[in-house]
Amino acid sequence: MKLITAIIKPFKVDDVREALSSIGVQGITVTEVKGFGRQKGHTELYRGAEYIVDFLPKVKLEIATTDECEDIIIDAIINAAHTGKIGDGKIFVSNLDQVIRIRTNEEGAEAI
Questions:
Q1: For a Cys-Cys bond, which of 44, 61, 95, 103 suits 6, CB 3.0-4.6 Å?
Q2: What does each of the 112 residues of the chain score in pLDDT, given as a tens digit?
Q3: How many C-beta atoms lie closer than 10 Å to residue 56's C-beta?
């Protein structure tokens, strides 16, 4: 089992959610986060003063899946979140040792 974590631009959330729904993904955790990568933030003008915005708004998606579905989900995220501009985001894949559904005590792939 895998945990896929994707950090994407906020305006791409609906596109990614629709792409994941279309391939049968049933569970997604979405968190609003802030951060920066290579772009190191940017400067903005507000009422004539210049401000440095170090942390940019992003959205973190977390999807638990079976090993067989990993590549399909990653491809769907990439295709839906891609703009071709800096700051499109990143995808991290981690191993899940154990998953338990609290309500039914199901374990493993059945709990996903």
A1: 61
A2: 999 999 999 999 999 999 999 999 989 999 999 887 776 666 666 777 766 777 888 999 999 999 999 999 999 999 999 999 888 999 999 999 999 999 999 999 899 8
A3: 17
Q: How far is CA 80 from CA 2, 32, 71, 98, in A?
A: 20, 18, 14, 29
Give yes or no for a contact between 52 and 35, defined as CB atoms under 8 angstroms apart: no
Question: What's the predicted TM-score (pTM) here?
Answer: 0.86
Around Cβ 73, how many Cβ atoms within 10 Å? 24
H runs (alpha helix) in 23-102: 70-81
**Which run of H or of E encompasses 17?**
helix 13-22
